[in-house]
Amino acid sequence: MGKQRLEAFTDGVYAIVITLLILDIRIPNVQPASLGTALAGMLPQVFTYVLSFFVVALYWFSHHRVAQQVKQIDGTFVWLNMVWLLFVTVMPFPAALLGRYPLQPIPIAIYGVDLILTNVTGFVILLYMKGHPDLCFTLVDSRLLRRQVPVYAVTNGVYALGIALAWYLPWISYGLYASVLLALMVRSARIPNPLAER
Amino acid sequence: MGKQRLEAFTDGVYAIVITLLILDIRIPNVQPASLGTALAGMLPQVFTYVLSFFVVALYWFSHHRVAQQVKQIDGTFVWLNMVWLLFVTVMPFPAALLGRYPLQPIPIAIYGVDLILTNVTGFVILLYMKGHPDLCFTLVDSRLLRRQVPVYAVTNGVYALGIALAWYLPWISYGLYASVLLALMVRSARIPNPLAER
Amino acid sequence: MGKQRLEAFTDGVYAIVITLLILDIRIPNVQPASLGTALAGMLPQVFTYVLSFFVVALYWFSHHRVAQQVKQIDGTFVWLNMVWLLFVTVMPFPAALLGRYPLQPIPIAIYGVDLILTNVTGFVILLYMKGHPDLCFTLVDSRLLRRQVPVYAVTNGVYALGIALAWYLPWISYGLYASVLLALMVRSARIPNPLAER
Amino acid sequence: MGKQRLEAFTDGVYAIVITLLILDIRIPNVQPASLGTALAGMLPQVFTYVLSFFVVALYWFSHHRVAQQVKQIDGTFVWLNMVWLLFVTVMPFPAALLGRYPLQPIPIAIYGVDLILTNVTGFVILLYMKGHPDLCFTLVDSRLLRRQVPVYAVTNGVYALGIALAWYLPWISYGLYASVLLALMVRSARIPNPLAER
Question: Which among A17, A22, A36, C189 is least surrounded, fewest beta carbons within 10 Å?
């Protein structure tokens, strides 16, 4: 089926993005005696790495739950998917920026903007599926969308709050990003058979 | 089927190229206070990144539309496909060059030459398929080729114009590349079921 | 089947990690006359590279032997698998650190800690499979676990010994890591049909 | 089938290696006025890049022709395949070294040694298949091996000659590597259906 090609390509992109994140954690270049101190100073980078790893993992997961409902794809769907991937492949940049400038407002804001853009594109794809029932196995109807809207609204609202607080309480911004991530992970972990055979 | 192996390999290469592009956008190494200015100065790089992302995406898309017509492959087809991939895997270099030297003629020209070489190889593959109908599902006949020729001619003509103008009006060169890309994206977005099951 | 998507993603991550390891072996930047000496000085890095290559290969192998027993997956399984991948994707960092600071205790310890964390996550996944027989083809029963426990215990015990000795006899630590790896490789090489069709 | 997992992993590794090669071609950091000269000075690197691209492509091709004959795999086969991949994933290092020190004997020799090691491992795999007919579709018999031996002997002989001449006539070494590559590419291009379905 045609959508399998797009899924394979998408899987490949996610696998590479999630693996490339480690390349931004450069080994310190110090005297062996100060290696411990240098590594301890890298803890913000490690935190950002783990956060970004699970962010990408979560997007991969939700991508598959969307893809599961898709029967066939058209040209517009390919390009919507590409825009989604654009915001995902960009992730190593804000991740590296945040790791390098841990408590600076601009990196926190850029990180949050990328999170929101990825989410919004995902929602646009859902809307497109609603308008093209011939592409879907399951009907993406108003009822399903109405159930999704609060999730998207809360998620993006918290991200937006994180961006706004970046200039005043950067630690809270980190905490907000991490909390949303954790909440979404726990939510998806409860799914009984998330990638069932079609 | 044998062609699936080549397609999987090709998909992998495309997925990696499109994801590697972000590695060329290095995070600035400045005082936090000048981070905003430093990031603003990276806008040409960001523009080149987005352009290159969709260039690679478009080549992946057209690769699949060609692959869809292919039933089986022979040794020559494998090597023609490899030459095609060579020009695609090269893309991160002109992209990085263009991002580093935004309005310089040589990077613009090299970028355009790579676009043309990739296109020409794609067309050579179509010609090869025309000469070997046993490899194809759909006959790549003169009628189909005649429909494709103007697209290739206009595309490469505009790229060549962009190369020539690089020494005089670099902004126009950028604009020409981006316009062709956008036109081809819109054109392919209209395809009803681009990657249908075979 | 749903688990195939997770397997494909996991395969991709492993393939990228094992290939990225070479990026940490930077070519020396010296006068041609001193190139031989410079390359000879890189032997510890080469040793670490080969060690890490086979470590990742071994984890890929055991991943597949686990995946073979899995019939379907649920949300928690996806996240356990992601944690496993986290510790695998991290590997290029301790590998590069160990190559750059060959006989220093901290890099040896970090390397060993990553080995143990990956192993422990693998064991947690086995425990999860034991508790969810509906996810498995073969029952992961107490008998099978009892057979695996000594392997995990010895492996992690030797790694822990390697970590402890890093501050006193770093060469022995290296030797311990390499010996466990070799023993596990020989053990798995004896498997008659390790990735049989299901 | 179990071998498909190993093939997918192997395909992934090849796709990444062939794409990573471009990362070693760093963009020059000069004044725009001297960009032309700087890029012209990179021609040896470009030559090495193209050579290495087709070397990896050729190994991928021969890997698949071997894999085609394989019905199922055992533990030893997995590890022989891993050793093969080790020498392939190493390739970006000698390629970068050769690009950085174009006419120096040591890089040429290391490059040739890697080519020979990859070839020899491929031949060992053939021997293993001959000894384990239960793993193969087609019998890898003495007749087939006898047909392959001269190819391996000539290929590795020429590579060895290239290594020896590296200290006296480095240009000839380059020429020898490139000629063998070209001869093997032409030979494989003539295969009617190299990746046929099994």
Answer: A36
Closest CB to A104: pick one of B11, B32, B195. B32
D70 DSSP assignment: B
Chains linked to A by 3 or more Cβ pairs within 8 Å = B, C
What pLDDT is stored for residue D178 in this prediction? 94
Over 60: is that where the pLDDT of B12 sits?
yes
For B159, half-sphere exposure in the C-beta direction (CA atoms, 13 angstrom radius) is 20
Nearest CA in chain A to C86: A53
Could you give the CA distance from residue C135 to residue C122 in angstroms, rounded to a whole number?
Answer: 16
Q: At what angle do helices D75-90 and C43-68 cross, to 10 degrees?
A: 140
Does residue D25 contact residue B97 with C-beta atoms inside 8 Å? no
* Nearest residue of chain B to residue D14 (CA atoms): B9
D79 near C189, Cβ under 8 Å? yes
Q: What is the pLDDT of residues C112-147, one digit of tens each?
A: 999 999 999 999 998 898 888 888 877 777 787 888
Q: Backbone phi, then psi, for D70, in 5-degree steps? A: -90, 130
Query: Which residues of chain B make contact with A90, given a CB cutoff of 8 A?
Result: 22
> A108 near A174, Cβ under 8 Å?
yes
CA dist D63 and D86 (Å) reads 14
Q: How confident is the model at residue C161 (pLDDT cuts 50, 70, 90)?
A: very high
Which residue on chain A is closest to C87 by alpha carbon? A50
CA distance D60 to D58: 5
DSSP state of B138: S
Q: Rounded to whole angstroms, what are the CA distances from C58 to A15, C54, C132, D114? A: 19, 6, 26, 23
Is the pLDDT at A51 greater than 80? The verdict is yes
Which residues of chain C neighbour A45 with C-beta distances below 8 Å? none
Count of C-beta atoms within a 10 Å radius of residue A15: 29
Helix (H/G/I), strand (E/B), else coil: B70: strand
**Chain B residue numbers touching D66 (CB-CB < 8 A):** none
The fraction of chain C above a pLDDT of 90, given in percent, is 61
| Highest averaged pLDDT of the listed ranges A37-51, B138-152, D58-72 | A37-51
Predicted pLDDT at C82: 95
Res C178 pLDDT > 50: yes
Distance CA B7, CA B63 (A): 9
Is the separation of the CB atoms in C65 and C131 below 8 Å? no
Nearest to A19 among C16, C76, C100 (CB): C16
C49-75 per-position pLDDT tens digit: 999 999 999 999 988 888 888 888 888
pLDDT digits over D94-104, tens only? 999 998 898 89
Tokens for B13, please give them.
Answer: 């290469």
User: Cα separation of B25 and B135, whole Å?
Assistant: 41
Helix (H), strand (E) at residue B186: helix B170-189
Helices C105-131 and C75-90 cross at an angle (nearest 10°) of 160
% residues pLDDT > 90 (chain A): 61
- Give Cβ neighbours of residue D99 (< 8 Å, ≥ 6 apart): D24, D25, D44, D45, D48, D49
* Lowest-pLDDT choice from A104-108, B183-187, C183-187, D24-28: D24-28
Q: Which residue among B16, B79, B100 sits closest to D19, beta carbon to beta carbon?
A: B16
Taking residues D34-49, report their average pLDDT.
91
pTM for the full predicted model:
0.93
Cβ B15–A16 below 8 Å, yes or no? yes
In D21-104, alpha helices (H): 35-40, 43-69, 75-90, 92-100
Q: Which residues of A touch C18 (CB under 8 A)?
A: none
Give the model's pLDDT for residue B196. Answer: 57
C-alpha distances in Å from residue D19, one per residue of B107, B184, D50, D57: 21, 25, 12, 11
